[in-house]
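Subgroup meeting minutes
Present: P.N., E.W., G.H.
Scribe: E.W.

1. P.N. recapped why we're keeping a running log of single-chain structure predictions: easier to compare across weeks, and new members can see raw inputs and outputs side by side.
2. G.H. added today's entry (318 aa).
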Amino acid sequence: RHVKAAASHAQDCPARQATVLAPVCQRAGLFLSMVSCSFAEALEMQEVSLGAGRRAYGPDHVDVAASYNNIAVIYVKQEKYVEALASYEKCKAIRIKVLTHDHMSVATSYYNMAGIYETQGEYAKAREMLEASRAIMINLLGRDHADVSSLDQMMENMSAAAAETVHEAGASDAVEFHDTDGDYIGFVLSSGTVQAWVNGVLQISHLTSCSIDPSSGKVTDALGTSTVPVETRAFTLAALTALLTLGNVSISNETEDLEKLRAATIHEVAPAEVLESIPDDFEALSSKELKAMLKEWGVDTSDCFEKSDLLAKVRSLL
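Output recorded in log:
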């Protein structure tokens, strides 16, 4: 009761009092959310804490980020995922600004956002967030850390869920594989039409043409290029060729020649134009998107085996 009374005067209190009020309301909000499950009151307390924190510390402070995080948690419990993502994004932006990108708190923000995307069945976006979290963890903890292994397992489980989504789409036949970037790729024959799926998300509803290079295992369509792992290459490409033929998809095997021609054209682009095309948030891109971006500039990625390798390539251009 006393906390609520103090909170009612929060907007008028000076900054000195706000430094006391902010953490008190934050703890009250956590109690109401976790113990009492009074989400509306918990949200009110966290919003008061947020306002007091902004007055006490300014907009860019870890405690302000914590308030945004706590607000997002409440929205998740209320299944208000759009609002939750917006709060998590604000939390992440402050943490990056104050703590730098390579910090465990930032990795946690990416992880939290991945959970929401996965809940909504947006597996491609969820995987991007997990990859961003994993890259930070590898830099800080090393590749063999248990937390990194746990993320790897989560991404495998997510790929399985993505595959289940494809099967539930009513496909009469499908060819599925995990490409060398770890993305789940599915080509589905449904009602005589071939669809292309990536990580459980329908990307092309009517595929009309596709290039297959048996020697390199590269499969190219309007989305870009995926590479079939060598262990399953022969069987997968044979099955895919049969499925594409059934779906009346135009198939060619000139992928390498087309790539060489494309690269020759791209090398004529001025370096300044390349720099301008690099997005500010390129570290949040997936491995597939980074590889496609580098390929567009004619940069060789054959020696890149991890996302960190691709990021290093991009940074070398800056």
